[in-house]
Design goal:
CATH architecture of the domain at 8-57 and 97-150: 3-Layer(aba) Sandwich
Shape: globular
Order of helices and strands: EHEHHHEHEHE
Mean pLDDT: 89
Number of strands: 5
Helix content: 25-40%
Strand content: 15-25%
Number of helices: 6
Length: 155
Amino acid sequence: MGDTIEKVSVIISKGSLDGIYPGLIMANGARAEGIETNLFFTFFGLDAINRKRHEHIKLASVGNPGLHMATWLGGFPGMASIMTHYMERHIESLDIPSIPEFIEMIADTGAGMYACKASVDLFRLEKDDFIDQVQDIITVGEFYERAAGGEIIFT
């Protein structure tokens, strides 16, 4: 048997269902195993923790090879909403919580939740734009300090 993992830092950089859920699933699994966990939301991943957007995350339907459909079909008006609705129903049937519920659940286990300062500045956001579970807005250097000695997972 190899070494055990004691700490992980999960970077969430995409603002779609298929970009956010993998990171949340990895973070939740880590916490369930007793692994120290931090989540670092950057670029469009900030949508997952943005007060105005976190309840309205869509599935990326244009150019998403995982959907196995033509790119032009994904561009039809309403296609992202239809595919999002389908996925949300399927996710719910598997007892996987919504993104806001999942983040709250993970935060309640003691995981750290941080927003990337460079991305926050880029999109002209402030601490008040984020949900309460976000502990701080930190620089990449501060992220590396928190990640030191652990594994980094980029989703």
